[in-house]
Amino acid sequence: RAAWIEGRPKAAALHERARASQVHGTPHHWVRQFPPPVPLVVERAEGVRLHDTDGHVYADFGLAATAALWGHTHPAVVEALRDQLGRGTITMWPGEDHVWVTEELSRRFGLPYWQFAVSGTDANRFALVLARVATGREKILVFNRAYHGALEPTYVVLTADGVAPEPGVDMGGIDVRRTTEVVEFNDVPALERALAGGDIAAVLAEPVMTNGGAVIRPEPGFHAALRSLTREAGTLLLFDETQTIPAGPGGCVRELGLEPDLIAMGKFVAAGIPAGVYGMSEEVAAVAARYTEHGDGGLGSTLAGGALAVRAMRTVLGEVMTDKAYAHMNRLAERYAGDVAAVIERHGLPWHVGRLGARVSYAFMPEPPRNAGSLYPKPGGSLRAALWLFLANRGIVLNGMSGAALFSPLSEEADVVRHGELFAEVIAELAAV
Ligand code: PMP
């Protein structure tokens, strides 16, 4: 901590100045939770390097939690956006890019119809509105500790006596118990009980859980049960692929052969230009059509599908998310996961490494976690923070909250090798204490 603070006088001064105009001196609420005692104040990002205000350079393994999954300055994206800036950022009229993008989304992810949103949160919100209108039901079901964006009805956890707001989150008077059911991921009997009431509009889920510092995989048969139970109950199945796209260029939907009624995604889809998309089945599209036919404001959004965002999406889908790019990303992720696993084994640590394609994280427990219930209440926050700081002091930045590492087409093998050395060093140091 001392080394970090000492080396960052400019960042500390900026943080102090920010306190007068930003709550807690941070521009949005996430940043306050990050481990560094003085914030990492970024001046610019280039390739996979972050340059801070005090002249330090870091290899970014966090990649803005998939918003920068393709690297910060992918040449194809930079060139397309430069060009688009001279052609207008938004007109509120459709263009050829919009058609190209929705055609490509259908081809990649299977669902026939697609619409634009302005973020991952926004895509989930639109998709939930459609699910509620299509089913005439209000309730939704989420898995314990899943995160789907700044959506109050999803800030919930499972408690001994039912559902409650997440600890520390004031719901501002919204009673989540009325609108939201929560069950543990991989718990088919609980899912069956929750759906039996026939009052749930949609199950909103990550196909593989990524939030909370672990990769939590579906057990054999879980997805088949989830699909058949939701069909029987007349409940729509909405997959959020915002964080699972490192699994492959068609997401988990393609990797695992899943058949949702709706898909929502944000972040990576426009290489970090604010945007989201949501896809839907024929049946859901028939409901969405009511809004467009009447032209009322129900599902409108001025900035959704802005020309700059859609150009970014066309570039991402057409030039960046290639099999070749994924082969590189996967190779580095495999090396990183292997290095971490080898150190864990050498020291006999009861830790588990989880990998989903180009995403790797480790949980401080010996077995792969089944669900959030088996991960909490000990996600190992202070140990994670200590590891983060050790690596960041030496020029490698992991995701600040989850400790996850992501690999982009621009990520470099030398950084992964260096990480392996540093990880071995810090664990040897900790083991000696
Ligand atoms: N879905 C998932 C799985 C996420 O992890 C997030 C954000 N971390 C979102 C949706 C929301 O994305 P955004 O914050 O960009 O709206």
TrEMBL record:
A Pfam family that the UniProt record links to this protein: Aminotran_3
Listed InterPro entries: Aminotrans_3, PyrdxlP-dep_Trfase, PyrdxlP-dep_Trfase_major, PyrdxlP-dep_Trfase_small
SUPFAM superfamilies cross-referenced by the UniProt entry: PLP-dependent transferases (SSF53383)
Ranges that cross the membrane: none
Family annotation (Gene3D superfamilies): Aspartate Aminotransferase, domain 1 (3.90.1150.10), Type I PLP-dependent aspartate aminotransferase-like (Major domain) (3.40.640.10)
GO MF: pyridoxal phosphate binding; transaminase activity
Keywords, alphabetical: Aminotransferase, Pyridoxal phosphate, Transferase
Family: Belongs to the class-III pyridoxal-phosphate-dependent aminotransferase family.
Official protein name in the record: Aspartate aminotransferase family protein
